[in-house]
Amino acid sequence: MIWYASIPDLKEDPRDYYSHLSFLDALERKGIKVVKRKLQKASKFEINKKKNKIFSKIKFCNNCKKLFEKFIHLIIQTKKEKGIDVWCAVDMIKYCLMNGDCDVCILISGDADFVPALNLLKDHGKDVLVASVHQGFSKELRDNFEYFVIKTETLNKCLRNYNKK
To answer: What are the helix (H) ranges across 84-130?
Structure first.
């Protein structure tokens, strides 16, 4: 089992950073391989582009515009994950096709970016199963692969009780 994770910035929220690392360390102690990448910040250009897109669609009065600008950071994603999905897709292909280490690929993610890699595995006769919590589970994944929805509580319990055989 491999867990892919982006690491938050220590400077932005030390408590979140250490909590996240503690969780990943607990997974590693249970024998789960953890692949980490640093979470990246969106550039000022990207943030302004999103902000301008919102302002072009909604006409605010001056008071509302000032208020909205104070809280824009709550709406616009300022952090982005880079490279984790590609890393995961490459590993799926490596382990399932190149190494021949598995016959079934189980992906726990709701991200439609994995569809091409999963289709490649399926085209090579591998069984593919996707699972995700309900929120953010891509319709494209559900339409193209066998799937099941995981309750968040079930996923947490599973990870707590996981012991490498």
So the answer is: 84-93, 115-123
Q: Are 93 and 117 in contact (CB under 8 A)?
A: yes
Residue-range domain boundaries for the chain: 1-39, 41-80, 103-165
Instruction: Write out pLDDT tens, residues 11-20.
Output: 777 888 888 8
Residues 156-160: contacts with CB within 8 Å, 24+ apart? 159/27, 159/30
Cβ pair 118, 130 in contact under 8 A:
yes
**What gap in Å lies between CA 51 and CA 25, rounded to an integer?**
37
In the chain, what is the greatest distance between 2 CA atoms, to the nearest angstrom?
Answer: 62
Express each pLDDT in 19-59 by its tens digit. Answer: 888 888 988 998 888 888 876 666 677 677 777 777 777 77
Residue at 97: amino acid letter: L
Q: Torsion angle, CA of 80/84/89/92, rounded to 10 degrees?
A: -150
Q: Which residues contact 129 (CB under 8 A, 6 or more apart)?
A: 104, 105, 106, 107, 145, 146, 147, 148
pTM over 0.85: no
Q: Are 103 and 127 in contact (CB under 8 A)?
A: yes
Q: End-to-end distance of the chain based on CA atoms, in angstroms?
A: 11
